[in-house]
Write a structure and sequence with these properties.
With 204 residues, the protein is mainly α. It has helices spanning 27-59, 72-96, 101-123, 131-167, 177-202, and strands spanning 3-4, 18-19. A two-stranded antiparallel sheet has the order 1-2. The radius of gyration is 23 Å and the shape is globular.
Length: 204
């Protein structure tokens, strides 16, 4: 039902103008603000973890090098491609009023990244380090990647939920704020991963 223009009377009166209600409503800016606050808190968590890692490394008299698993390189590429695909999916799904192949592909790429991240743990080579340093290097690598991986799992669950809602037509008429928020969250995960990968690369 449309909204009457002020001063134009009711629907049965002459001069009445019926204007459509705007889609989304006032909750969209609030949900966007909530997402930004959520990412800010996560950013502080990841920043604190990186700072703690740097402090522990600098406290060692002779910091031992860390050999990065080669699987982290294709994993990074997969996450970059996933970000591009998801951005396109966020636009096309809202326009098409139904799930698009890009949205399903973004979900699959996110799962592939998580798999490669898990496999990199088995590829991590600490055999040439003393036991104490090997334990420290293995712990710091696992801590940083696992912290990111847990939030990737959350992103996958969010994408699956968005896909289900898209099938039900929840994003018709341009009501795609939730979808855009999920895409923004994944872009945030990409930025955090690039930072973590750079930090790990610097100490390798």
């Amino acid at each position: 039902m449309g909204a009457a223009e002020p001063g134009r009377g009711g629907p049965d009166e002459p001069g009445f103008i019926d204007r459509p209600e705007p889609q989304g409503g006032r909750h969209e800016p609030l949900s966007r603000l909530g997402m930004l606050w959520f990412m800010a808190s996560l950013g502080a968590l990841f920043a604190g973890s990186v700072v703690a890692f740097v402090i522990v490394r600098s406290a060692q008299a002779e910091p031992a090098g860390l050999t990065l698993p080669l699987l982290l390189w294709p994993a990074t590429l997969v996450l970059v491609v996933q970000g591009v695909v998801l951005e396109r999916a966020a636009r096309r799904t809202a326009e098409a009023y139904r799930p698009t192949p890009e949205l399903r592909l973004a979900l699959a790429l996110g799962g592939l990244f998580l798999l490669l991240q898990l496999l990199s743990w088995f590829e991590l080579d600490l055999g040439d380090l003393p036991p104490a340093r090997a334990a420290l290097q293995g712990f710091t690598f696992a801590m940083l990647t696992a912290l990111h991986g847990l939030h990737v799992v959350g992103g996958l669950l969010s994408l699956g939920w968005v896909l289900r809602r898209a099938r039900a037509g929840a994003y018709d008429g341009g009501r795609g704020e939730t979808l855009r928020n999920v895409a923004t969250y994944w872009h945030f995960l990409l930025g955090v991963w690039i930072l973590l990968f750079a930090v790990l690369g610097l100490v390798a």
